[in-house]
Amino acid sequence: MNKKQTIDLDFDREHIWHPYTSMTQPIPVYPVTHANHNLIHLETGEQLIDGMASWWSAIHGYNHPILNAAMVEQINSMSHIMFGGITHNSAVELCKKLVAITPESLTKVFLADSGSVSVEVAIKMALQYWLSQGISTKQKLMTPYKGYHGDTFAAMSVCDPVNSMHSLYNGFLPEHIFVPAPVSQFGSEFNQAEAQTLEQYFKAHHNQVAAFIIEPIVQNAGGMNFYHPDYLACVRKLCSEYNVLLICDEIATGFGRTGKLFAVEHADIEPDILCIGKALTGGTMTLSATLTSEKIATGISEGEAGVLMHGPTFMGNPLACAVACASIDLLLNQNWQQRISDINSQLQQLNKCRELDDVADVRTLGAIGVVELNDAAGSVDVAKIQAYFVEQGVWIRPFGKLIYLMPPYISDANSIKTLCDAIYNAIKDKHYR
Ligand code: PMP
Fold first, then answer.
1. Which of 108, 146, 260, 278 is catalytic?
2. Can you cite a GO biological process for this protein (predicted)?
3. CB 3.0–4.6 Å: which of 18, 58, 365, 397 could bond 54 by disulfide?
4. Per-residue pLDDT tens for 287-324?
């Protein structure tokens, strides 16, 4: 155990921007020396059970020997090379796997470096496809409220414009068409009125709309809304009927998190364009992909520009591709469905939070558990509740009134129990005030 303070927190506080933070009122940050399996080790000696999988990504936990070995092998041959005019085995093998495991019609892959960028690429694909068909009126996107697709400009333009983290930038963003967020919940009855409302929007706007973009089944940062698969099925049907492309953003939901390999499978649909990231490399390296069909790729390629105008420097990074191959094999070579179902059973312990006055709802889906606080809870002091969680030996990072778990799939029953108990006690004793 390393008790000597070597991470310069003063420098960090003074000079380093953390996600969604102020430079003058920085949030407390915890110095981490290493992470192993589902444990995060602090420099101060504490170890924390991880409930976040580093924001959906570290599905196999940390420091996994198989993933490490894949990276070491790749580093020893080539850690990076430009992708312009060059190809390599790790990209080719990864794309073979992606074509094999994603919905059948998706056969063309663009490899980028973050989730947000894969959304930018998806939007460009959609706009460029219609231009290639000689249709220049389709320049808008349609998307439900409560969505979240990333922090870059096109991605921000399709995030929820009202409650969004990005409303400050609204004046700079193109205006798109927002439809009501899905209301019928996963596991309950689907209200057909939602389908009728969606159809009205398609009828009114389809001539202007290039694509409908949606997070399948789980609206993530927009409220952890687990919605009914029929909403998605209905969107798919309307997109086909009204000549609108469907972009599904599986950056958070992909690779088993919801109990299906990809969440679109809950609705038995295929998108025209699919975005993946986060767990693609088992949370080890930054990599994303945008997949599309033969039809869209051919349209773009035979259109006026003839090329897809995107090419990030680190596109197809060999190291990230190699570890993504290893991560996908590791996932598929185990009974991951059983793992997710076991975690889901253990997450049911969150239901005891229902007895607490400040709790509005508890919901789980696959390896995701959410406790939503109500207005009585007041505004949540994230730093305070975070400090309590660290004291309890768990790493859980609430978002607004949502306290949620998306643990690594390797988490054992005791770890999940400790995470669920910490959430219950934090709410019971109101550690967020
Ligand atoms: N889409 C969804 C659904 C996400 O959850 C995220 C990340 N929270 C993104 C896009 C953006 O991905 P990244 O942070 O890798 O840019």
1. 278
2. biotin biosynthetic process
3. 58
4. 999 999 999 999 999 998 899 999 999 999 999 999 99
Say yes or no: CB of residue 150 within 6 Å of ligand 1: yes
Q: H-type helices in 20-114, by residue range?
A: 53-56, 65-75, 89-101
**Cβ of 114 below 6 Å from ligand 1:** yes
Exactly one of 129, 148, 227, 409 is catalytic; which is it?
148
CATH topology of domain 67-333: Aspartate Aminotransferase; domain 2 (3.40.640)
Distance 78 CA to ligand 1 centre (A): 28
- Whether the CB-CB separation of 38 and 50 falls below 8 Å is answered with yes
| Nearest CA residue ID for atom 9, ligand 1 | 150
Cα→Cα distances 348→289, 352, 424, Å: 33, 8, 12
- CATH assignment of 9-63+336-429? 3.90.1150.10
Ligand 1 and 54: CB distance under 6 A: no
Closest-CA residue to 361 (of 193, 226, 242): 226
Distance CA 413, CA 320 (A): 31
Which pLDDT belongs to residue 164? 67
Q: Where are the domains of the chain?
A: 9-63+336-429, 67-333
pTM exceeds 0.95, yes or no: yes
